[in-house]
From TrEMBL:
Location in the cell: Cytoplasm
Name by which UniProt lists this protein: Nucleoside diphosphate kinase
Family: Belongs to the NDK family.
Organism lineage: Bacteria, Bacillati, Bacillota, Bacilli, Bacillales
Keyword ATP-binding recorded: yes
Protein's UniProt keywords contain Transit peptide: no
One GO term describing the cellular component: cytoplasm
Length: 148
């Protein structure tokens, strides 16, 4: 089954949105297989956002994502990578549809609440960057029988 890396960013943690965000993915029918509250080391943040290292906002982005705890998660499900991106909404909250996480809770691009992997390749890379294999639980969710 497909896995993706999702993360409530420091603004979402500070605003008390962890529970709301976890609920949305649970209610959708996806399965949580890993989660932890952590402060991201700067070197890990620079690797995580490596594709943006030449962008003018890179320094600010790394400062922000390391500024306080994030809630890092691994979720599993059919087409979870693309579907989670849909549920997050567009990068700029002003362009994100109401009903999406960024559309409902974000105002500015710099504080857009949630990160999610954008492809199978980045999901694999990001899960490995944030989680040890032993931190990922393989479990049978009985409700899956009513989802699939
Ligand atoms: P996403 O988080 O939707 O995958 P991205 O990978 O293009 O978006 O950018 C990563 C983060 O960088 C994004 O969530 C917020 C920040 N960011 C993107 N574009 C920005 C911009 N023009 N100004 C400031 N921050 C930006
Ligand atoms: Mg991205």
């Amino acid at each position: 089954m497909e896995k993706t890396f999702l993360m409530v960013k420091p603004d979402g943690v500070q605003r008390g949105l962890i529970g709301e965000i976890v609920s949305r993915f649970e209610n959708k029918g996806f399965q949580l297989v890993g989660a932890k509250l952590m402060v991201i080391p700067r070197s890990v943040a620079e690797q995580h956002y490596g594709e943006h290292q030449d962008k003018p906002f890179f320094g600010e982005l790394v400062d922000f994502i390391t500024s306080g705890p994030v809630f890092a998660m691994v979720w599993e499900g059919e087409d979870v990578i693309a579907t989670a991106r849909q549920m997050m909404g567009k990068t700029k909250p002003a362009e994100a549809t109401p009903g999406t996480i960024r559309g409902d809770y974000g105002v500015t691009v710099g504080k857009n609440i949630i990160h999610g992997s954008d492809s199978p390749t980045s999901a694999k890379r990001e899960i490995a960057l944030f989680f040890d294999e032993k931190e990922i639980a393989s479990w049978e969710k009985l409700l899956n029988r009513w989802v699939y």
